[in-house]
Structure formats: structure tokens, C-alpha cells
Amino acid sequence: MDRNEVLLVGRLSAPVEDHPMPSGDTVTKWRIIVRRRRHRRGAALSDSVPCVTFNPETAAVLRGLKPHDYIEVTGAFRCRVFGPTAAKMWRYEVEVSSARPYEAALTKPDDPLGDAGEVKLAALIPRQVPYLAPTG
After folding, report:
1. Phi, psi at 134, each rounded to 5°
2. Lower Cβ count inside 10 Å, N or C end of the chain?
3. Main-chain dihedrals φ then ψ at residue 102, nearest 5 degrees
4. Is 125 inside a domain boundary?
5. Residue 34 structural domain
């Protein structure tokens, strides 16, 4: 059985943008900045992940957020093809089905790992996905 599930927790890079479609639907677009684990040289790298939603409730949640607010989104990875036959362009994005603000935990003033009052993300433990055994 195939699965296409995405869970991202990161920061909203800029205000969301609404784009009306010829069908009358509205697509809402934004990017999430997701930090990678530490790089070999000690620098923390990040990815800017393009996201879209066609769901009006999800779009309303996103419109209530400001740039650099932390969010958690779930959805599916999509490849969209645009352009004329002779010059096709592929674009990869996450089609989001749900979004919510992500609560950050305040560090304690006596925490030796952080400055007093510094906001840190709560520990993120990846969700376990049950092993998918081949059938038949």
C-alpha cells in the first residue's frame, strides 16, 4: 500500500497569498521555513518548503498568523506540471489538508542550555509509521 503523508513544523516565511482560479476556487500559497539538523560544519541549514491549500478553513487559520509564527501542517507531497507541451515545468509542493499554530515552550531561567526567557521549540519526536509489509 502506498502512502503520501507529510508533517511539517516550522516558521511561516511571509504572509499567505490567495490566488483565485478560473473555476472560482481559491488557492492559498505560502512557504514554511524548516531547519535541518546540524550540518557537519556546525551550521544549521534550513529549507523553504512551498505549500498550498484549497481548503477555506485551513486558509483562514493561516491568514490569522504572522510571518515567523510557528505552525504545524499535515498534507501530501505533490508534483504539478505547468506550461506548454514543448516547455514543461515541474513544481513540487505540499498540498496541506490541516494547519494549526504550534505552541513553543518557554525555557526556564535556570536552564543552562538556553538564555532566560528564550523561546525554544518543544522537542519534536517523529511519529512512528508502522512497517508496511508486502502483501500477497
Report:
1. -60, 140
2. C
3. -105, 120
4. no
5. 6-120
